[in-house]
Amino acid sequence: MSASREDADGAAGGIGPTVVVNRVSMRYHVPSTEAHQGLPRAGAGGLARRLLGRPPLVPVDALNTLSLVAEHGESIGIVGRNGSGKSTLMRLISGQSNPTRGAVYASSVPVMLGVNAALVPELSGDHNVILGCLAMGMARAEIDDKFASIVELSGLGKAIHLPMRSYSSGMSSRLRFAIAASVDPEILLIDEALNTGDAQFRERSMERMNELRAKAGSVFLVSHSLGTIKEMCTRTLWLDEGDLLMDGDPATVTKAYLDYTRHLTKGNVDSAATIRDEAVSTLVVTEVEHQGPGRRKL
Amino acid sequence: MAHGAEDGTTESAVAGVKVVPVSTSGLLRIGARPGFLEYLTQIWNHRAFIFYDARARVSSGNRKDRLGSAWMILNPILNGLTFYLIFGLLLNTSRGIENFIGYLIIGVFLFQISARAITNGARSVQSNKAVIQAFNFPRATLPISVNVREILASVPVLITMLVLILIFPPVEDITWRWLLILPALFLQAVFNLGVGLILARMISRINDITHLLSFALRVWMYASAVFFSYERFIDHEVLLTIVQLNPLFNVLDIVRDCVLYATLPSWESWAILSAWAFGALVLGMVFFCKAEESYVRE
After folding, report:
1. Would the CB atoms of A61 and B60 count as touching at under 8 Å?
2. Nearest-by-Cβ selection for B9 from A121, A135, A285
3. What ipTM did this prediction achieve?
């Protein structure tokens, strides 16, 4: 949505929030094979699905109602176990998913550096580079300028001329990263991208990411490496089972999270629950209050 | 259902609530559907993407086949041959049609162009999920680029068509009227795009429609007088009107008049065809745009 960028410039100049997450929640409906155990889906829809031999749909709350305001200059780390809603939150902020309820506002279009692979499998790597850059709204001249550096960052060498379906998953995620990292976004989202590829690529991508981070207004970083979070972030969120448990200083939050997972691995469910409750008891829930007419399109 | 929280946080004991006043006036709403005019502007800004995508995929379209792009031309030739054997020789539907071979060639070639463009346009959103997930761009560019690709790919097909008409007796003279097929083909392409946009949204929601599409296209073919003269076979008043209002029938009628019969097409044919083409395009754009924010979901 690059055409709307001019609307954002007004806010980006001053010190204001870059991302506002307002009472957002996410619920997926997924087919479940756990059919016969007390999930009687009444109504015509459930009956029809049964007759057609399709498994019934079960709602899954990936993210419970959450509000968040990111200020200019903040680097926000997100920690949590698998399935805690980290990636869901990132997808909501980047616009790759729409929330079931609530809305996300941003001062410009956030750019996600993810690890999902293949773009157009039947096209070659270099065609994919140009196509991806054009999709992000770059001009041809700009792409020609950046093309060499994108290919270099991807580290694909001659393989850039082969169709993308022949790439290994590591190769395509490297290319995907290199394309996405070619813009200088104001809001940067990084989802486990640090763990992509081999050691050599990791070093190069780290370098590029640090550059981007230095230029970006706000950074959201999802990582399982607590060291990276502490090193890179100014603020950290801890999500668990779709709930926000803590929001604060990286050292404190990562320590609490680490304690929690340690207790869980040892099987101390009760003491882990105590840590969780303690974390929640310090949480200050953000509530967004609308001012002015706004650009609410519902 | 598994988790109870419908609204509000589930936590009972949080430390407090921090109310953050936020003015969303300078912010973009992520994932929001843009206004229709803004959407058209965004598409225009992505025209380089559309043409690049279209050109890149023309060349990669038939790469899996040994004969490659030759199938673009072989396909309608073989189709025409089949129809010639069955309808021309066995069933003798050719009676009463002047230059039946030319009549048949125009019908089969032009029908194939529409059938391909509509089928591929309808699948364009579904088959490009990876690109949609990876980048933020107006999604209508995908069906548009597919249709541009089909137009580019149909140039050799059309040339073959005209060459075949000139080869088979009775030989037709090339007149200035041949130029009139260009606006007719343009209107046909506009109609294909409109229908493709409508179907693309429907299929992105309900995939089952792809199964129905091939049946619908077959019915459409029989209703377009591709290989028989409708005057001879249809006596029913309503059916006759339906055939005469059919946009593709009008394309065929105009092209046959210009190329085979050296007569000026009637203004009614042009009017009906234009109404269909621009009606479908406007309806398709509006209909497609209305669901813009939802295509990203799996």
Report:
1. no
2. A285
3. 0.76
